Amino acid sequence: MAEGPELNFFDLRTVHDHFDQALLENDDIDLKEYLDAYNELYKFFQLMGSVFSFVSSDLKQKIDILIDLKNKDTQNYMTVKSMIEHEKENKLLEKTDFVNGARTLLRLHRGLDFIREFLQQLGDLSDVDKTACCCQDAYSKTLAKHHPWVVRKAAVVAMYTMPTREALFKKVCGENVQRNIDVLPKMLEVTADVFNRTDSIYEAYQLHTLP
């Protein structure tokens, strides 16, 4: 019974392992592994509470849409490339009454840019440093570019309430703070690989500007 509550906390090892498995040999991305990693990242935002509400509800919605698409059509939604090719061939990218996977994944991709930038900067702080500044900086470099002014303003204001690095890690990791800090560099490395590969796929298919 002692291990039960720990299951509710955020675990960077889980993120690392799923993203590592997502990197396929043919320069593709396994969609299930990607979404499993992202579900764990989403847990981080949940544990942080209302400060990240500007992004967490949107992320969960996008994850659920892709899981649903994958469950309904496992073969075509096996990888990022197979998903994009399926949607391009069937002209699903232009359909206004269809929530396509390519556009949905692009939103998660942009969110991942923010998450990895924030965690990267978090790793460079000392325990007593406040996390607000690095979070605001990570946001301004990434997600802010895709958000309207009202959302940007609210997000930056909410970040002022963020705790020190030590308090943040305790809040999201429970008793496993050191284990998470130890795996952070490796997790950031494999996350960068996943991000860059996904970025290259979208570049190859010229889908970065999907509305």
Could you characterize what this model shows?
This protein is mainly alpha-helical and 211 residues long. It has one domain: Orthogonal Bundle (Glycolipid transfer protein, GLTP). Helix content is 66%, strand content 0%. The protein has nine helices and no strands. It has helices at residues 12-22, 31-48, 53-72, 80-89, 101-123, 132-141, 149-159, 165-173, 177-204. Helix 1 runs parallel beside helix 9, helix 5 (101-123) runs antiparallel to helix 6 (132-141) and helix 6 (132-141) packs antiparallel against helix 7 (149-159). The longest helix is centred in the last third of the chain and has 28 residues, at 177-204. The protein is globular and about 55 Å long. GO terms for molecular function: ceramide 1-phosphate binding; ceramide 1-phosphate transfer activity. One of its GO terms (cellular component) is membrane. Pfam families: GLTP. It comes from Pogonomyrmex barbatus (red harvester ant). Residues 29-173 form the Glycolipid transfer protein domain.
Write the layout of secondary structure elements.
Layout: H1 12-22, H2 31-48, H3 53-72, H4 80-89, H5 101-123, H6 132-141, H7 149-159, H8 165-173, H9 177-204
Helix pairs in contact: 1-2, 1-9, 2-3, 3-5, 5-6, 5-9, 6-7
Q: What is the tally of helical segments?
A: 9
Q: Would you report the number of β strands?
A: 0
CA gyration radius, whole angstroms: 17 Å
The number of domains: 1
Distance between the termini: 48 Å
Helix- and strand-based class? mainly alpha
For this structure, the CATH topology is Glycolipid transfer protein, GLTP
Biggest beta sheet attributes: none
CATH superfamily: Glycolipid transfer protein
The second-level CATH architecture is Orthogonal Bundle
GO molecular function: ceramide 1-phosphate binding; ceramide 1-phosphate transfer activity
Protein name: Ceramide-1-phosphate transfer protein
GO biological process, one term: negative regulation of interleukin-1 beta production
Organism: Pogonomyrmex barbatus (red harvester ant)
